[in-house]
Each structure stands twice: as C-alpha cells, then as structure tokens.
Amino acid sequence: MAERLALQHIDKRFGSVHALRDVNFVLHAGVHALLGENGAGKTTLMRIDYGLTRADRGALRFNGVPVATETPRLVRSDAASVAEVRVIVV
After folding, report:
1. Residue 60: how many CB atoms within 10 A of its CB?
2. Which domain holds residue 15?
3. Measuring CA to CA, which residue among 50, 34, 53 is closest to residue 42?
C-alpha cells in the first residue's frame, strides 16, 4: 500500500523546549488516530503537516511528492483532515 503522508526526521523547538525530536510518521489511506498524553507533540506535528507551524528540521511528502514546508499550504480535497477531540476521564 502506497504512503499518503510521510513526515521524516521532524524536529521542533519552542525556546528551550524540544517539542518534537527526530519524529518519523507515515500514513497510508484509511482512517487513523494519533493518541498521546498532554504535551506529547500531537498538535505540533499536525500543525507542521498543515503548514501552520514550521519545523526546525525534517521533510514532508504527500503521495510521494516532497512538500515545501517554508510556507503554509492549502489543504486540498485529497489531503488528510484533522479533527481534534479531547477526552477527559474522571
């Protein structure tokens, strides 16, 4: 199955906080969930994918084609959609 989205060796710092360190993330067609604890970097990774936040290092490919990460990109109809759901367990 061909990859739809690949983020490779993604690094992102916010001041002294290293939010993402050498993250590799590959998605194939289908429905997926990205889960993790608060502060794990989920939102930062998706913001980099959507072009809303610039990675300090790394590469992004969509359908095998490199995507420039220097400027925000528009989400196309064939791109992934992101819905963020927060669950609070008491």
Report:
1. 20
2. 3-67
3. 34
Cα separation, 62 vs 65, whole angstroms? 5
> pLDDT at residue 56 above 70?
yes
Q: Any residues with CB less than 8 A from the CB of 43 and at least 6 apart, and which?
A: 84
Contact 21, 11 (CB under 8 A): yes
Residue 49's φ and ψ, nearest 5 degrees, are -60, -45
State residue 43 phi and psi, 5-degree precision. -65, -40
Written as one letter, the residue type at 78 is D
Has residue 78 been placed in a domain?
no
pTM of the model: 0.75
